[in-house]
Amino acid sequence: MYELFFQQFNEKVPLTAEEQETIKTFLTPKKLRKKQYLLQEGDICKYIAFVEKGALKSYVIDEAGTERITQFALEGWTISDLYSFLTGEPATYLIDAIEDAELVLISKAAHEELLQQVPKYETYIRLQITGAYIALQRRLTSIISLPIEERYKNLTTLYPTIVQRVPQHMIASYMGLTPETLSRVRGRVTGRK
Amino acid sequence: MYELFFQQFNEKVPLTAEEQETIKTFLTPKKLRKKQYLLQEGDICKYIAFVEKGALKSYVIDEAGTERITQFALEGWTISDLYSFLTGEPATYLIDAIEDAELVLISKAAHEELLQQVPKYETYIRLQITGAYIALQRRLTSIISLPIEERYKNLTTLYPTIVQRVPQHMIASYMGLTPETLSRVRGRVTGRK
DNA sequence: TAGATTCCTTGATTTTGATCAATGCCTTAG
DNA sequence: CTAAGGCATTGATCAAAATCAAGGAATCTA
């Protein structure tokens, strides 16, 4: 249990056996069925979720009622509405499972205790957020500076697994496009050459 | 010297006088004239820069040779090419001053020493990046889920100072629009009502 | 297995923003 | 003080993506 979580943790910040045991006491496992919510509209986000297995997405609903995906999380990724989690304000994002999933949850109380008690946890979190920040910055830059086709190519080379496992209309949503447009872009990119 | 830097630091993580002195020894002041570079195409990013005074921007140049602004940094903000800074890879962003500026620089060596020696520095950095991450996420969400006019309104309410101090064509670049389009959007938003 | 969804694709039309072009204002440098 | 360059605006045209619409394949499910 928690194999992937600790594998990744140890890669970033090597832990002693005791440290690992201490951390374990603060974690909660959770299984989600496809389409089940981890976080619903307006709820307060109570957890940071690490994905051991399966896939989730976070998204907002725009005024037209369309789902706009802000993030995917496959195995090894972490997902949460961080603002809501940290401030206790109602969430702006929704999170649900796009495949049956197994999660490792860290509650707010656990998070705070861990920051106090285990210095390496703070380091882990710092590195984790730094990575997420850099990934987000890269994504934003590609949105404002690259033509759509390049963005799609980038996505397929950077995250091939996502493109393979996730339905295309979700990729379209994630890219801020309609499914029709993405389908045509794919035709151009994949089709010829 | 470093007033704003330490003011903000103390707001996030209160420091003792000694801690503050220790940190001071790792900081370097730097002044930049308008249009001067802090970081040029392909260089390795050697510093995290905190803005005490003035304004900078970071950007990329797209294939058409157009500047695409990824971030503004006014007083109290921090700017860097974090990926380049952390990995030592050549920078993907350029950074220059849009107004004469006074900076507080933290070099890579200083950063690493501070992480080792001053636990509160790690906390500061963690909080700093967390804030930046949340801001970036919010921006990305507004890009993929809101119509342009709402995005502009959001920007003016969230960062009125930026909209006031920065030339409009830079705001356009930051929003991924042409100056003409932003001008028309403004006409619609500001003009009527 | 039949029926219903979900998902992707393709075509025709409309809308939106980009591009091209010109003007006037304001700042600034010689 | 004057010329030049930077900046915002406005108009006309063009290009790209959204929308509207329909069809067909694949998957799930009763």
UniProtKB/TrEMBL annotation, chains A, B:
<dbReference type="InterPro" id="IPR018490">
    <property type="entry name" value="cNMP-bd_dom_sf"/>
</dbReference>
<dbReference type="Pfam" id="PF00027">
    <property type="entry name" value="cNMP_binding"/>
</dbReference>
<dbReference type="InterPro" id="IPR000595">
    <property type="entry name" value="cNMP-bd_dom"/>
</dbReference>
<dbReference type="InterPro" id="IPR014710">
    <property type="entry name" value="RmlC-like_jellyroll"/>
</dbReference>
<feature type="domain" description="Cyclic nucleotide-binding">
    <location>
        <begin position="15"/>
        <end position="115"/>
    </location>
</feature>
<protein>
    <submittedName>
        <fullName>Crp/Fnr family transcriptional regulator</fullName>
    </submittedName>
</protein>
